[in-house]
Amino acid sequence: MKNTTILFLVIAMIVLAGGFVFVNGESTITGNVVSGGSLTGEMQRVVISQDGYNYKDAVAEEGKPIAISLDSSVQGCLRAINFNLDGKKYSQYLKSESDVLQLPALKKGTYSFSCSMGMGFGKLIIK
Ligand SMILES: [Cu+2]
Fold it and tell me: Rounded to the nearest whole angstrom, what is the distance from the C-alpha of residue 77 to the centroid of ligand 1?
C-alpha cells in the first residue's frame, strides 16, 4: 500500500515537472511575440525599394534603432540585404515585405549597403 502511494507521488511529480516544462516553453514563445511587437514602438521603420540593379537611397533618423524591410519592388538576390557597420555584419534574407532586419541606432552620416553578393548597392542616409 505504501509502495503504491510512493509510486503515485513519483508519477504525479513527473507529470507536474513535464507540465512546467511545457508551460515554460509556451510562455517563451509568447514572450518573443510580445517583445517583437513592443520593439516596433521604439524602432523606426525604413522600407527600401529597388532602383534598376541597385537600391533606392533610404533616409532615417540618428539615435534610434532601425527596422529595415524591403517592399515588393525588390527582387531576387537584392532581397538578401547586407550592412557592414563598425566592422559588424548585419545580413538577412528578407523573403517577404513583413520580414525585418534590425540595425542599431546610428550616428549622422551615409552608410552604404549591398546585396549579399555585392552586386546591387544602396545608401542609408542618417539625418
Ligand atoms: Cu546580388
Answer: 4
Residues in CB range of 48: below 8 A, 6 or more apart: 55, 56, 58, 68, 69, 70, 71, 74, 81, 122
Residue 4, amino acid? T
The separation between CA 102 and the C-alpha centre of its own chain, rounded to angstroms, equals 5
Distance in angstroms (rounded) separating the CA atoms of residues 125 and 127: 6
CATH class (in words) of the domain with range 43-126: mainly beta
Cα(78) to centroid(ligand 1), Å: 5
Q: Which of 5-14, 37-46, 69-78, 87-96 has the lowest mean pLDDT?
A: 5-14
Q: Bridge-partner residues for 90, per DSSP? A: 83
pTM: 0.67
